[in-house]
Hints:
Oligomer: single chain
Structural class: alpha+beta
Number of domains: 1
Shape: elongated
CATH topology: Thiol Ester Dehydrase, Chain A
CATH class: Alpha Beta
Largest sheet: 4 strands, antiparallel
Amino acid sequence: xxxxxxxxxxxxxxxxxxxxxHWQSSCIAFPGADLLLNYGFxxxxxxxxxxxxxxxxxxxxxxxxxxxxxxxxxxxxxxEIGAEDAPRPSVYADWLIMVRYRGAxxxxxxxxxxxxxxxxxxxxxxxxxx
Length: 130
């Protein structure tokens, strides 16, 4: 086996990235949402190794909310994943989540473009970084 340039075992980047869904469901709420769908990524960068046994955490920032159709919005999240005591984040990602609200067919969710997108930002209750 070849010697690692990282001086030990590191976690695979996609393993670290896969933790996002767990963090999202445990720290971000979408009150009244009927459906949350992982819509993919616009960008993912693996910028530093995560050593085996490291504690990792993520920081989410809601970058944009785009109405797709009445009652449906695409939320764009800027995400950083870091390992404890690391000098810089290990992963940077632009993650997309599709949100559908109850009553969307009747137009009852109140999601629209412009200033009312702020209400969706408020609905995406982010109590702090994890």
